[in-house]
Write a structure and sequence with these properties.
- It contains 3 helices and 5 strands; from the N terminus they run E-E-E-E-H-E-H-H.
- By secondary structure, it is an alpha+beta fold.
- The strands form 2 sheets. Strands 1-4-5 form a 3-stranded mixed sheet, covered by helices on one side. The chain has a two-stranded antiparallel sheet with strand order 2-3.
- The radius of gyration is 14 Å and the shape is globular.
- The two termini are 28 Å apart.
């Protein structure tokens, strides 16, 4: 599993702007429900791209420990499963949730499986990885 730490600093909104910011996005959680990132205003946010079938998968345990130590009033980890790296996340949202819950007791928010690169890159990851 490759976990790519995309964002590990406080994400702040600097007034009203025509340009989107992190809090303007709504994503689907792993259950398929809308998750407005605006709910995270004022918190430090760590966005991670996850996969369940690779050598780094045990990092779920460390991420959960970090979340339990510092979350969730002022800090949150958001996991985004993706199958973009050597097919290491082939499962459905249900399979991913079951694996994360039963194997690592993950309690930080997990989002629906997305694409983090390529032609079908999710708009949030497009924003996170843009140079604007």
């Amino acid at each position: 599993m490759k976990i790519i730490l995309i964002l590990a600093a406080m994400i702040m909104t600097f007034g009203l702007s025509a340009q989107k910011n992190f809090h303007d996005y709504t994503v689907d959680d792993i259950h398929g429900n809308a998750y407005a990132l605006s709910e995270l205003k004022g918190k430090k946010v760590m966005v991670v791209n996850t996969a369940s079938k690779c050598g780094l998968t045990p990092q779920y345990e460390k991420l959960e420990a970090l979340y339990k130590e510092y979350g969730s009033e002022k800090f949150v980890i958001i996991g985004f499963p993706a199958n973009n790296f050597m097919g290491q996340e082939p499962g459905t949202n249900e399979q991913i949730l079951e694996f994360c819950t039963l194997t690592y007791d993950v309690s930080f928010p997990m989002m629906s499986k997305i694409s983090v690169k390529g032609d079908d890159q999710h708009p949030l990851y497009n924003w996170l990885t843009s140079k604007n």
